[in-house]
Specification:
Elements lengths: L1 E6 L3 H11 L5 E7 L2 H7 L7 E5 L5 H13 L4 E6 L4 H10 L3 E4 L4 H12 L4 E2 L1 H13 L14 H11 L4 H8 L3 H15 L4 H10 L6
Parallel strand pairs: 1-2, 1-3, 3-4, 4-5, 5-6
Helix pairs in contact: 6-7, 6-10, 7-9, 8-9
Length: about 210
């Protein structure tokens, strides 16, 4: 069973998300509130695996709320549901401790998928967010993060840029006049050189290495 807490100052969102998640037998909403003090008080009484936080602008005060929640409950997995799509804001939320981020226009099934993913110990970002962060990563001179012997080749960076722009393997192959298998090989080599397993890991690596600067 995945125990979920919901935080939003909009009752309609609280009611809608609670109603939708009730369709899943292994997800139980144990807290739904828009009051920060009440949230922390109730979390003393209920186990919460994933806290879904709905914040529209992600102001400094709201990001501090995330930091405070993580300090109080280090094992908590915070999933942000927001319409803020500026890369600097998203990156600050990750720095603050959020483990997942989906946009407010996500459908219910993606919300459930994100909750399951966080519960299993993995981060979750919607495709649009991952691409946005990946492009920011690339624009800050990816090669500077590696020693010369480990630096990505010009071709690999070219493929990484197209990947970040949302092109499929077939589309990348068509644009560069290479085979799909070659594209896949380059992608694997990129991840091997950076010792990463996914684009989410790539973003986290970029933040940790200060390639993406906040």
């Amino acid at each position: 069973m995945v125990f979920v807490g919901l935080f939003s100052q909009h009752k309609l969102i609280l009611d809608s998300v609670t109603a939708y998640l009730s369709n899943y037998s292994d997800i139980k909403v144990v807290i739904a509130t828009g009051d920060k003090s009440a949230l922390f008080e109730k979390m003393k009484q209920h186990i919460v695996h994933v806290l879904v936080v709905n914040m529209f602008e992600l102001s400094t005060a709201e990001l501090n709320f995330i930091i405070d929640a993580m300090l109080k409950y280090p094992k908590l997995k915070i999933l942000l549901l927001s319409n803020a799509n500026r890369d600097d804001v998203i990156l600050r939320s990750i720095k603050a401790g959020a483990k997942g981020y989906i946009t407010i226009d996500a459908n219910g099934s993606e919300l459930a998928q994100a909750i399951y993913t966080l519960r299993m110990g993995h981060d979750y970002f919607s495709d649009s967010i991952t691409q946005l962060l990946l492009n920011r990563y690339i624009s800050n001179n990816l090669e500077s993060a590696n020693d010369d012997e480990d630096a990505l080749s010009a071709r690999q960076i070219e493929i990484l840029k197209l990947w970040g722009d949302g092109f499929s393997n077939q589309e990348i192959a068509d644009k560069l006049f290479i085979s799909v298998r070659t594209v896949e090989t380059h992608k694997n080599h990129i991840m091997q050189k950076l010792n990463l397993k996914s684009t989410v890991d790539l973003v986290k690596y970029a933040i940790k290495s200060n390639i993406i600067k906040l």
